[in-house]
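Example record

One chain of 75 residues, shown exactly as stored in the release files.
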Amino acid sequence: MASDGKKVRVKVRTIHAVYVGDVLLPAMRNRMSDYFNDEAHTFFNLTDVRVESTKDEMEYVCLNKALIESIRPAD
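Predicted structure tokens for this chain:
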């Protein structure tokens, strides 16, 4: 199947900006913490992204986990 998993809208604060976008949690990792703490991946992928305090909207953003300060569910 093309989209095994759960799409979750999140707000990600980095050292440079705040991003609001969707993350696809794989079926095997249904908690955000499991997905984020997977050491096999250095980057965190978001789709349908909006950058807060700007008019910027992007289809896809790949963020370096080392630059992320916090992640929470979007309102």
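Notes: The longest strand covers residues 5-14.
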